[in-house]
Amino acid sequence: MNQNAVLPNLGFGLRLRADYLPSFIGSEPELDWLEIITENYLGANEETLDQLDKIRSNYPIVMHGISLAIGSPWPLDQAYLNQLKKLVDRVNPAWISDHLCWKGADDVQGQLLPLPYSEDTLEHVVTRINQVQDFLGRQILLENVPIEQKSSQEIPEVEFIREVADRSDSLILIDVGNLLASSLSQEFSAIDYINQIPAGRVQQIHLPDITFETSSDGNCDASPRIIDPIWKIYTEVLDRFGLITTMIEREDTIPTLKGMLCDIKKIRKAALSHMENG
Ligand SMILES: [Fe+2]
């Protein structure tokens, strides 16, 4: 499966939300790439797909899914996979990702449950990733989901994630916010975790809110607060993996596109400065 395929570093991007769409029609906001939520476009009408084609001609696009449920105990949803493949063929994304999780039987959209990290789960997940990658004819990325409650695991999360990627030749999307949440509940070091993941397996980062020294909307020059735990983990990511495709992810409060572009500017500048000066 695409052994040794090298996917590009796309730079700094954001998720294309419906309310940002008008700004991408007829103008080209300053950012490197866009992530779309796969499910928003499955079964979309031609008009919507045409609109996406136009945006696609100006920016690389990656597809991020929430429904694959790679670790669920029941069979993979072939109807979903068929739709996914059709969309992949149409959009031709730089890559596609989903979550290293499972979903309950009630199939609540967006429900991403952490897996029990055991040897049995590992084998189960690897088999299913192989099936998906064979069907789609490309590698997939899987994102770490947050564990909110202390739980005892047979295998530490970082080992599980590393083994899943190695055994299935899949790639990793590290969500720094999810990693911080899991490290706090499971009492492990997020920095050690980053350092135990092989560099060649990590393709993308989701970066949540970072606090800046000054954060007024008009000032895009502010630096991240050095003590911000998210910034601490992200600088470790940069040290280990180099400049890597990063999406600024806001889930609680969604800023305006102008605010997001400002955040991208700040993070890009801070990341480049970190790479130059340490
Ligand atoms: Fe994420």
From TrEMBL:
Quote the Pfam families the UniProt record gives.
MbnB_TglH_ChrH
Membrane-spanning ranges: none
The organism's superkingdom is given as Bacteria
Designated name of the protein: DUF692 domain-containing protein
Q: Which organism is it from?
A: Sedimenticola thiotaurini
Organism taxonomic ancestry: Bacteria, Pseudomonadati, Pseudomonadota, Gammaproteobacteria, Chromatiales
